[in-house]
Write a structure and sequence with these properties.
about 170 residues, alpha+beta, 4 helices, 4 strands, globular
């Protein structure tokens, strides 16, 4: 019985997401002061606006005394460990599973670094139109969101019928 190589090399993509996320946050902290002041990128659609999130998506649990930091640290560690284990059981050629998992892991660790270092996540991408404003987010959030959508879409419409798990 031969085993196919696992998808752990896809963690290089996770590492790239982490590096790009941290570099972009470093840039945002250096270039976008003071916090809350929009810097127009695409008029009527996109600004760079420095913001800090002490909670989770859409500022969930943002003002709860600090305990939520450790909840989100623990969740990021547990979820990342589960996804790495999933990658280890996935064949390397199954990019429909490996790519989304790598993006989610990279995004989760990117935001984890912020929580451990500064007890908050640095956000700076503000998308809006007219009176409609989406939550301010960062590259790690984007990687998590894109990875999650891809995982669902490939799971529903992937066409191969398998998860690539050995």
């Amino acid at each position: 019985m031969t085993t196919k190589p696992n998808a752990l090399p896809w963690l290089l993509l996770s590492a790239a997401v982490i590096v790009l996320d941290q570099l972009s946050k470093w840039w945002a902290l250096a270039a976008l002061q003071p916090a809350g002041m929009p810097h127009e990128v695409i008029p009527g659609w996109l600004d760079w606006t420095l913001s800090f999130n002490y909670g989770a998506s859409f500022s969930f649990l943002d003002v709860n005394g600090g305990w939520q930091r450790w909840l989100f640290v623990a969740l990021a560690l547990i979820i990342s460990a589960v996804l790495v284990a999933w990658l280890a059981r996935t064949t390397r050629s199954d990019w429909r599973t490996a790519l989304p998992l790598a993006l989610i892991i990279g995004g989760a660790i990117g935001n984890l670094i912020d929580r451990l270092h500064a007890a908050r996540v640095t956000d700076f991408i503000a998308v809006y139109h007219g009176n409609w404003h989406f939550a301010i987010f960062n590259l790690a959030d984007s990687a998590i969101s894109v990875g999650a959508v891809m995982l669902v879409a490939f799971g529903l419409f992937g066409g191969k019928g398998g998860s690539g798990v050995r």
